[in-house]
Amino acid sequence: MIEHISQYAIEDCLDKHQLIQDLESALFILDVFSCELNNVDSCVPDSEEVKALMAEIGSVK
What we know:
Keywords: Plasmid. This protein is mainly alpha-helical and 61 residues long.
């Protein structure tokens, strides 16, 4: 999901508000399923990485 959002940001397909909303949703999913995601053999960003990306965009809740 984060890669999908990032790709749209690179292509300027989303406005800043929509991008922040999508990242907030991703952050919620990461927080809710963090234990399960930690047990999966894949590269999953942690919530601090998502918050840093949101800060770069210009807003953190």
